[in-house]
Amino acid sequence: MSQAAASFNPFDLRGRVAMVTGCNTGIGAGIAVALARAGADIVGVNRSEPVETAQQVCALGRRFVAVRADLASISAIPGVMEQALAEMGHVDVLVNNAGIIRRADALDFSEEDWDAVMDTNLKTLFFLSQSVARHMLARGAEQGGAWRGGKIINIASLLSFQGGIRVPSYTAAKSGVLGLTRLMANEWAAKGINVNAIAPGYIETNNTEALRQDVGRAREILQRIPAGRWGAPQDLGGAAVFLASSAADYVHGHTLAVDGGWLAR
Ligand code: NDP
């Protein structure tokens, strides 16, 4: 075996640029740092300044570009692409992570809460993927045989598979994320783009803070998790690195649950 073949690391992301939405905190931060540790430079897209994530990525010797944008509206997308490409030159990996949740009984749920969740969690995910895929394909056409393909990773949820309670727009959006993951994978696999999803279980982030403060409910959840603990944002890193890397070149339209065994129960 040649020395190059012997030292080949399929998880090596050096030279790759990963755009991660919603990476100032929680799961997005965990994923951005894991991708940087594997060698990727990061474009972080957030409403607020992702100070800590930027520091952690830079401490790993990787570049971090912060793009400020409100992904509640797809009108933000052209500006996001323009700044990302002006500063990094290209995007090889997109992680659609930014998301919100609104809680109310289905009988009382408002149109405003429906639209807010669907716009951020589903509509922007699709149209940002479309923009990034167009960029990847244009770059691929320019580079010909040298192009290594692109990766899109969508953050789904246990509620992509289960009904949940008091989160109708979230359940609808996260179910839609899996449908769109499969559709984009179908349409773009032959063009060299892998589209896959990660379904996190119960992870300790801002998103689940209210849930964790409800002591009875938090205990019920904990008792149902086979791994015996809630997840941490760092637990999502390995799955993201795998799906962003050439180790996943033949993985299309798949959803990887990172849930401490919840769905296996
Ligand atoms: P957090 O609330 O910690 O993080 C959400 C992130 O999304 C923040 O970085 C936030 O950035 C960003 N965001 C939200 N709205 C917008 C917007 N309009 N424009 C730009 N960025 C936005 O939650 P999590 O880390 O838990 O959630 C991350 C993803 O994981 C979500 O898609 C969520 O649905 C999913 N998920 C979480 C689970 C959990 O148990 N925590 C379980 C299953 C799925 P900013 O603060 O700048 O607005």
Automatic annotation (TrEMBL):
SUPFAM superfamilies: NAD(P)-binding Rossmann-fold domains
NCBIfam families per UniProt: kduD
EC number of this enzyme: 1.1.1.125
Keyword Isomerase appears in the UniProt entry: no
PROSITE patterns the record matches: ADH_SHORT
Domain of life (superkingdom): Bacteria
Protein's UniProt name: 2-deoxy-D-gluconate 3-dehydrogenase
A GO molecular function held by the record: 2-deoxy-D-gluconate 3-dehydrogenase activity
Pfam families reported for this sequence: adh_short_C2 (PF13561)
Keywords, comma-separated and alphabetical: Oxidoreductase
Similarity section: Belongs to the short-chain dehydrogenases/reductases (SDR) family.
